[in-house]
Amino acid sequence: SQMSDIKRVFKYHGAEHKSIFCVEHGLELTVENVRKQSRFHPRCGTSFIFITLILSIIISSVINVLFPELRQTSLWLWIAVKLFMLPFIMSIGYECIRIAGKHDNVVTRILSAPGLFMQRITTKEPEDDIIEVGIAAIKAVIEPVTEESVAETAEDVAEEGSESVAEPQQD
């Protein structure tokens, strides 16, 4: 995580969080408004992965204690049970993240703490040029796609392409 390219990725991750917070607070997506937001977001994928991992360990341990013969019988049976439980574990993790994003109380702060701590590693404070990329990405996602916007984008791409290609000269 100390490589310069990885640090840059973490800055983009931070810009994404800041831009999302800006939208959630109803602020205009400007570099100044985005810069003021936190880079730590309770519904981050990093938090989801961390909560899912912890839930998987807890639920697998409980199943192992309740049904010790299950793991001792066959490794393949144990793997099948764990794979069968995966959608349920991920669903619980998703709901935990959703609740943490909607409510701010002691329980949700405790639930969010490990993921927010991990975000100290996976997000960094972005510079303004990276914030601009974060804003563009959020706008691309939240603005409705219409035939006009697709046509405008196609025209812009065509114009940029024609400017970069030199016309052949006639003698």
Task: Tell me what the structure shows.
The structure is a single chain. By secondary structure, this protein is mostly helical. It has 8 helices and no strands. It has helices at 4-24, 31-35, 45-66, 68-73, 75-102, 106-122, 128-142, 147-164. α3 crosses α5 (75-102), α3 (45-66) crosses α6 (106-122) and α5 packs across α6 (106-122). The longest helix has 28 residues, at 75-102. The chain is elongated. The termini are far apart. 22% of the residues are buried. Mean pLDDT is 84; it is low at 162-171.
> Tell me about the biggest sheet?
none
Terminal-residue CA separation? 57 Å
> In what range is the share of β-strand residues?
under 5%
Q: How many E strands?
A: 0
Radius of gyration: 23 Å
In short:
The chain is mainly α. Helix content is 77%, strand content 0%.
What key phrases describe this protein's structure?
single chain, mainly alpha, 8 helices, 77% helix
How are the SSEs placed, and which strands pair?
Blueprint: H1 4-24, H2 31-35, H3 45-66, H4 68-73, H5 75-102, H6 106-122, H7 128-142, H8 147-164
